[in-house]
Amino acid sequence: MPDLIIEPPDGPGIHVPPDPRLITAVGTGHSLQSAVADLIDNSVDADARNVLVRFLVREKSVEGLMIIDDGRGMNHDQIDKAMKYGGQDTYESGALGHFGIGLKASSMSQGDQMAVYSKRDGYAPQGRWMSRASVDAADPVVTPIRSSTVEEVFAATPTDFNLEHGTIVVVTEPRNFVSSGNGAEVARWLTNSVDSLEKHLGAFHHRAVGTGRVSIWIDQFDRDMNMAGAPSRVSARDPFDYPDSGSTGFPQRCTGSISGIDFTFDVHVWPANHSHLDNFNVDDSSGSDGQGFYIYRKDRLLQAGGWNALFTQSDDRKFVRVELEVTEDLEPYVRMNPEKYGIEFTGPFRQAVLAARSNSTSKTLGELFEDAKELLRISKTRKKVNRTIVRPQGGLDRRIVEAMGEFIGFDDDNPPVSIVWERLSPKRVYEVVPGKRKLVLNTHYHDDLTKLGATGKPAGPKQAPLLTTLIYLLNRQDLVRASAGPHWQAEQEAIQNILRVAIDSQREWEARMGLARQQNSDR
């Protein structure tokens, strides 16, 4: 076998130009969440104080998306450069832009048509339109929009903030939005999408949101009624905002060096007894369970968890997270994809991270992991002293189960208890089945407990998490019963009678308040 080539061979190279069709692939890695976050980067770079993410909705379809900001806006030259692929030659210090393709790639990843309307003080309003067809043909065509039309769009766009200047990006003919023609499906898709966006934007822009640099809002505009709903405000979800460190001596700052460039990162241990907090898992899509590197560039989170080919996922590191800021000097060694959603460490940088040492203890990252592992073991040992609840199986969100484990502790000597929905007598809101390790919620009261009657969604796992948790805790001692004695049965009967009265009272209160609700057909 010949030796591997480890140095460039002699002789001139051959220029291999990229295939123009590569343009069509740019942005294909975007999700709705990452695309919107990328578009908001442009708004933050334009010094917007407010950004509104607006879904364009009809009763049975979601027809588009708008990103509206009150930033500086763009003049003729700036909007033309923004519409070019790779059109931005340089960025101001602190700018989130990097490749010069975010506006187009993000928009075109979500819809087949996009329009940009912009107003900048002292300049004529500008607008541009582009279709996916020209992008797919590897020959992007941008069509100007009349200034008068831009003025009309701004005037017809209601917001709770001033829009004398700013930019509006509109994406239509959506590629992945729900269009089933079923109103319940549309409502469900919107609920899930808004929830995911709030979490993602609150995490990946948490520094800008948390410091008040920008406020991000999400609403829905009903095109049938020509009216916007009340906007919800995105809250900052800081992955390092925990009450106290989970381990003595943490966080620890480490310093490393690569090619004469010093860099630092902070090693944190999230407190295990606070893993139920909403900002513990800031990005469910990473699959990292929260552990790993949290990588920032210019105060914008790029990666939430994951070990970047340095380490593997491990329960011993479940609460360990490393905070790394990528400076301009480090950008050649910490590379991101055009969607800003995939980070790669070069081989030399991985070695530099492994060689970095704690400023206070001179330990390497691997040695700090061992310290965290030992402290986690001690913490688990202490928790076992007070096991007072049997573990639930199904029916509750993972975070609730973890909170039960952290704050009460599980009696793992007993098998878990299943939580299910089944048809029971109307006399019972729920039922504990002694000897079968089963908690049954009555589908007869499904709408009273979940408020899902109007959606047509059937009873299923992890619905009504608050009430399910309360019922579980109420019966924490009864769930391990092997048999049902007469005294216990009488007590259960009394509880069911009280709960039925409470349900009747709830229905009367809803009627007085004029709250819409779906009546069960057999009530």
Largest sheet at a glance?
9 strands, mixed
Q: Which topology of the largest domain does CATH recognise?
A: Heat Shock Protein 90
Query: Can you tell me the overall shape?
Result: flat
Measure the end-to-end span. 81 Å
Number of DSSP E strands: 21
Organism: Brevibacterium linens
Pfam family, one: HATPase_c_3
Protein name: ATP-binding protein
InterPro entries: HATPase_C_sf, MORC_ATPase
Q: Can you tag this structure with a few keywords?
A:
six-stranded mixed sheet, 30% helix, nine-stranded mixed sheet, 14 helices, ATP hydrolysis activity, HATPase_C_sf, single chain, alpha+beta, Heat Shock Protein 90, disordered N terminus, flat, disordered C terminus, ATP-binding protein, 21 strands
Characterise the protein shown here.
It comes from Brevibacterium linens. With 523 residues, the protein is α+β, with helices and mostly antiparallel strands. It has three domains: 22-229, 2-Layer Sandwich (Heat Shock Protein 90), CATH 3.30.565; 252-380, no CATH class; 387-513, no CATH class. The chain has helices at residues 22-25, 32-45, 76-82, 102-110, 132-136, 147-155, 183-204, 206-210, 347-355, 365-383, 398-407, 446-450, 465-474, 486-513; strands at residues 50-58, 61-69, 111-119, 126-131, 142-145, 166-174, 215-222, 227-228, 232-233, 252-258, 261-269, 292-297, 300-304, 320-325, 334-336, 343-345, 357-358, 392-393, 417-422, 430-433, 438-442. The strands form four sheets. Strands 1, 2, 3, 4, 5, 6, 7, 8 and 9 form a nine-stranded mixed β-sheet that branches. The radius of gyration is 28 Å and the shape is flat. Mean pLDDT is 83; it is low at 1-11, 13-23, 87-91, 93-100 and 517-523.
